[in-house]
Amino acid sequence: METKLFTEERQDEIINLLKELKSVSVQNLSDHFGVSGATIRTDLSALEKKGCLRRTHGGAVLPKTTETYLQELGIQERSHFQEKKAIAEAALQYVSSHETILIDNGTTMSAFCTALAGSSLSGLTVYSNDLYGMQILESKENCELHLIGGSIRSGFHYTYGQQVLDELGSYHFKKLFLATSAISADGLTTVNSDLAAVKRAMINASEEVILLADSSKFGQVGFQKFADLSEVGVLITDSGFRKKEQKALLKKIANVITV
Predict the structure, then answer these.
(1) Which residues make Cβ contacts (< 8 Å) with residue 222, sequence separation at least 6?
(2) Per the confidence metrics, is the pTM higher than 0.90?
(3) C-alpha 97, offset from chain centre
(4) Domains, the chain, ordered by start
(5) What is the pLDDT of residues 45-100, one digit of tens each?
(6) Which among 93, 98, 156 is positioned nearest to 122, based on CA atoms?
(7) Got the DSSP string for 60-81?
């Protein structure tokens, strides 16, 4: 019979192997340690619960942090990582256990999914078109995930297209956690028409819109408008935006929270 110490030592070694190899399989670990596949799967499940790895079909990989994801994207927004993290944590107050929510895509949404995954909230049902956000939430126990299917925009980790729009058109959500590329007095805009169409469909499918946006987005105008400011119920942002902008927002958005 295995001792507790041996189990812990084996799990420590699994993490060391993952750090070296980046991925491991149940079969290779079973051969390496001379134990059954069932024992290895138990080890991987225990380590996944601790956030040490992410289970895959037949093995495991190291979990990506939101910070790592931002670095991989290679976009300017990664300089606002701390602001996004604080905004994401503040947004948790708008989520209750056993609730069904819709989550938009983007780096701020990845930070929000990371906050959700680490929270004590349980019984959540999450719909999203964000592949990476759903990947983050895979590690959360008692969380039902639904990826909205469609074409995948290469390099940006989200689905789009008519299939996404049709699926969203058949749903009704209490809450949408929304992202935007730019905010101005004229409304919310983003970088392309396909993405704008998805965001518009998400808003149409939801009762309440909770916008998560760091202050670098203010005063910017993107290619395609997808919403008026008056459609936003709650805006959560950081304290970096100017007083003049704040006054303009408060006239059109009922609830503005700064962190």
Answers:
(1) 181, 182, 189, 190, 191
(2) no
(3) 17
(4) 4-61 (1.10.10.10), 66-258 (3.40.50.1360)
(5) 888 877 778 888 888 887 765 445 545 444 444 457 789 999 999 999 999 999 99
(6) 98
(7) EEPPPPHHHHHHHHT-GGGGGH
